[in-house]
Amino acid sequence: MDGTLRTGTGDPIPAGRTVGRSPGRLAWMRLRRDRTALVSAAVLVLFVLVALAAPLIEAAYGIGPHDQFQRRLDGFGMPLGHAGGVSGEHFFGLEPGLGRDIFIRLVYGLRTSFFVACTAAVLSTLIGAALGGLAGYLGGWLDAVVSWLTDLTLAMPFLIVALALTPTLALRFYGQRDEVPPSFGVGVLIAIFAVFGWTSTARLVRGQVIALREREFVAAARASGAGLGHLLVRQLLPNTWAPILVSFSFAVPQFVTGEAALSFIGVGLTEPTPSFGRMIYQSLDYLQTDPAFVLFPGGTLVALVFAFNLFGDALRDALDPRSAR
Amino acid sequence: MLRFLLKRALGAVLTLFTVSVLTFGMFFALPRDPVSGMCPKNCDPQRLERVRQELGLRDPLVDQYANYLKGIVAGRDLGGAQGGRCDAPCLGWSYVNNEAVTDTLARVLPVTVSIVVPAAIGWLLLGVGLGMVSALRPGSWWDRAAIGFSLTGASVPLYVVGAVLLLVFVYTLRWLPVPAYTPLATDPLRWAGGLVLAWCSLAFLYSAIYARLFRAQLLETLSEDFVRTARAKGLSNTRVYGKHALRAAIAPVVTVAGLDVGAALGGTVITETTFGLPGLGRAAVDAVRAGDLPMIMATVLVAAVFVVLANLLVDLLYAAIDPRVRLG
Amino acid sequence: MTAGEPLLRVRGLTKHFPVRGGLLRAVDGLDFEVRAGETLGLVGESGCGKSTTARLLVRLLEPTGGRIEFAGQDISRAGRRALRPLRPQMQIIFQDPYASLNPRHTAGQIIAMPLQVNRITPPDGIRARVRELMELVGLDPEHDNRYPHEFSGGQRQRVGIARALATGPRLVVADEPVSALDVSVQAQVVNLLRRLQRELGLAFVLISHDLAVVRHFCQRIAVMYLGRIVEIGDRDDICRRPQHPYTRALLSAVPDVARRDRAGRVRLTGEVPSPLDPPSGCRFRTRCPSARERCAVQEPALIRRDGGNQATACHFPAGASA
Ligand SMILES: Nc1ncnc2c1ncn2[C@@H]1O[C@H](COP(=O)(O)OP(=O)(O)O)[C@@H](O)[C@H]1O
Ligand code: SF4
Ligand SMILES: [Mg+2]
């Protein structure tokens, strides 16, 4: 199936090939032929662009995330007009109560969400790849320790520990009365995700490395005198991109919803950091009175996570053609 | 087999021990006066001091921990204000709830179990069903619809699903009562009626994982040698699917399910909060909010016990189900 | 090529793998030497310990016992640091041309790897050296940015050969270098190896389960059975006057020899015993047509008989002193 022509006479030059198609390039070509992958990737790119260009969008839109429009609320603090105050001026309407613009808050919330989720995913994937790779290659006691660490991590109830740890850490670093800067909250959130999120990457990478380490190209490098660094980084790592990329692409949406879940129990990001999760959580109070307020952030979140999951599936299929059917 | 079991059991005990040390360290060693959190704002200094004394907070940390462990294994005497003698799995006394921690646990655990067990059955059936539908006709509209449905479940935060369900079925249509917990033994119908929305939300959320996992596994095993051999031997499709492929494909699903159920039994925090059900997850959140240390320790530990036990069980089941697995 | 210290000297080399069910004696006491520029063929059925021997010689494995001397230096227990300066001088070619090349590296990267690992900078630079090597093994140097999956099996094996030659080794161990290839390609690769061996003056240990491959290539041949050498000697002696029943059996399987020597034909029957529990006395006795009582009691030593170069481990060698 690899397109190599074997005629059985002499050493045939494989037919009809351009030079230097790496396995990565081939996966890329498979991905490009996949319609689901294309659509979900386009959606993701759009989200990323919006997140990156948030200040530009603010400038063009003319409304900031903290601007309040109390005049457009009625006596009960509910937005005037239909669908939660949707108008040419306020694309997605206004928040009940404070009267802030939902659209621009979503744009900034997206930015925070992406930043937190992507940073945490990079960290957790790095930890997982390093631990899984070492455990898989060296085996023995190190492998036992890593698999025990995995069990330990999985045994700690994530939400409860996060709930308990977040204020405790703030107290540790800032004392009872100090103002805790927003960046600290973001940092703690990322750290918690990274510490709890590495296990699945580690498991995947470990499995891949175990399958690879007995291959003769690893032996060839050892026979040439290669050290552990070369073996892991130059020989094995290039062959573990598939599980690493796939687990990264699943970690990001997991952390996006994770932030939303933490907001729900009150340990997500706090004001004034714009946050998707907190916005959705706050909107739930208005489920009956102002459903549009639930719909816009909720719909955006679902679209984002859905696109990520679809893309992750497509990526896995493209990287592992055996699973694509 | 026995050696394998022994090794796993030893690892499990070590994991639990470490969880307890970590929890203990996290909450006792950090610079937060555990007592001030336990007592409302204007609480007199004498009472605070007495509580400190009774909790043994003046002792060295190692002693405190040793006492705690001793309480779990052999029980201990907590002193008059804490209800005196505390029997064998003694997890301490909660000043907030004013009762022994084990009593609180005995009250909240049945709620969580009542949520998780039927929900797990639901998500397994739904997930495996959807996965099978899409694996039998990969690429078809059935496949897409099943995967799309399950992916939606994975993409919506549970509390949003819960809120919408509540709005529709409880507040608008009034088909269901406001969710509440009634013990199964008291009134099975009210038990189910009060929990059904929680079951549905959880099943919707989790089925996605299972549908995708089962689909991938089934496709993989269908292309494996032993399935092809079975076909070549002339077994009918039903036999091939039923006897060989399903059996092999279900093994990883069992692994994941075991771990998920284990984790969920440790407290379905979001579900319980959304539907206002007084389970272990809610108790944990309340304990953290109130700074109720013995209760925090207990909930974390109980959650860890569930995960570890599930892990052990899964290993055994796995060996029993998958014809290819040998114990290593 | 007669005088001088041997480049490789192996004494009592053993490798036992602890496995479930006991000790697996994969290699169980080998003695042989290879001089500079000399070719030694190692033949034996699958599972007799050839690959394990190959991996021991280039110290991918640590021996359980015995000694390996390379260029006068004992390397049997040497660590990575001590082996470092010797690595460029001894290289290995693997059997499987698919598994032995990193699928994510280009041919150029693969061939350059030993140079980079050993921080060797050739006079004209690494790229020029890679092109030179590719030409040497009969590959188009323009294909240096192709990936392994874009080559045919034979071409891949050539890439593996070029990699082994990159550092200019004095000893090359080739473990079944052609047995995974199409028959038509096998001859080409064998011829390439032979040409390279002559042009570069390499010492060669060529491992094969097929006596026919080794016979045309090697000056000396060692026959292995269940982790031991049962007969070793010059090619002509081994092929014309095989003394060990096992060697005779192997020769009978080679088509043109079989035709010539119909009378002395030996057929192998039965299964190879497990290296977990080798037979007492002579390990070949369970399949040997000339086995007698003594064979079950006493293990035959590998000894020379005619004062020649041929040594045989058999109590009742055929044609001895005949
Ligand atoms: N790493 C290992 N662990 C256990 N047994 C091994 C290992 N490598 C090889 N063996 C066993 O050693 C014996 C010789 O193997 P090998 O050297 O590969 O033989 P050959 O190359 O002649 O076919 C075989 O029985 C094989 O199963
Ligand atoms: S020693 Fe005996 S059994 Fe062994 S090869 Fe010679 S004759 Fe056969
Ligand atoms: Mg071999």
Automatic annotation (TrEMBL), chain A:
The chain crosses the membrane at residues 37-57, 114-140, 152-174, 186-205, 292-312. It is a multi-pass membrane protein. Signal peptide: none annotated. It is found in: Cell membrane. Residues 110-312 form the ABC transmembrane type-1 domain. PROSITE patterns: ABC_TM1. InterPro entries: BP-dependent_transpt_permease, MetI-like, MetI-like_sf, OppC_N. Coiled coil: none annotated. Its main location: membrane. Keywords: Cell membrane, Membrane, Transmembrane, Transmembrane helix, Transport. SUPFAM superfamilies: MetI-like. It comes from the Bacteria. Belongs to the binding-protein-dependent transport system permease family. This is Peptide ABC transporter permease. It comes from Micromonospora gifhornensis. The lineage of its organism: Bacteria, Bacillati, Actinomycetota, Actinomycetes, Micromonosporales.
UniProtKB/TrEMBL annotation, chain B:
InterPro entries: BPD_transp_1_N, MetI-like, MetI-like_sf. Residues 109-318 form the ABC transmembrane type-1 domain. Gene3D superfamilies: MetI-like (1.10.3720.10). Keywords: Cell membrane, Membrane, Transmembrane, Transmembrane helix, Transport. It is a multi-pass membrane protein. It is found in: Cell membrane. The chain crosses the membrane at residues 12-30, 111-133, 145-171, 191-211, 249-270, 295-321. It comes from the Bacteria. Its main location: membrane. PROSITE patterns: ABC_TM1 (PS50928). Belongs to the binding-protein-dependent transport system permease family. This is ABC transporter permease. It comes from Micromonospora gifhornensis.
From TrEMBL, chain C:
NCBIfam families: oligo_HPY (TIGR01727). It comes from Micromonospora gifhornensis. Pfam families: ABC_tran, oligo_HPY. Keywords: ATP-binding, Nucleotide-binding, Transport. Belongs to the ABC transporter superfamily. GO terms for molecular function: ATP binding. It comes from the Bacteria. The keyword Methyltransferase does not apply. This is Dipeptide/oligopeptide/nickel ABC transporter ATP-binding protein. InterPro entries: AAA+_ATPase, ABC_transp_ATP-bind, ABC_transporter-like_ATP-bd, ABC_transporter-like_CS, Oligopep_ABC_C, P-loop_NTPase. CDD domains: ABC_NikE_OppD_transporters (cd03257). Residues 8-251 form the ABC transporter domain. PROSITE patterns: ABC_TRANSPORTER_1, ABC_TRANSPORTER_2. Coiled coil: none annotated.
